[in-house]
Amino acid sequence: MTSTPDAPEHDGSDLAELREEIDALKAIPHEEIVNPLPKNLEDREPDAEPTDAIGSERWDDTESPRPGS
Questions:
Q1: Buried b vs exposed e over 20-52: b needs ≥16 C-beta within 10 Å?
Q2: CA 20 → CA 15, 16, 24, 31, 45, distances in Å?
Q3: Is the model's pTM score more than 0.85?
């Protein structure tokens, strides 16, 4: 790149801020950039609760408590 008296040769000193922004964007996982999850939706996600194992429920006797209760 040539320089002129009106526009001296660029030394790149103002690119440090841009480099910081690029590095911050590189730190974000690709999936988060492509398909971001809104923060308020993430906070409303339900917590997982333990469930009974498949086949452990007793259908024949609804009045008596389940085993382990």
A1: eeeeeeeeeeeeeeeeeeeeeeeeeeeeeeeee
A2: 9, 6, 6, 21, 32
A3: no
Contacts of residue 1, Cβ cutoff 8 Å, sequence gap at least 6 = 9, 10
Tens-level pLDDT at each residue, the chain (69 residues) = 565 667 777 777 778 889 999 999 999 988 888 888 777 777 788 888 888 888 887 777 655 555 555
**Both tokens assigned to 52:** 């009974």
Give residue 55's identity as a one-letter amino acid code: G
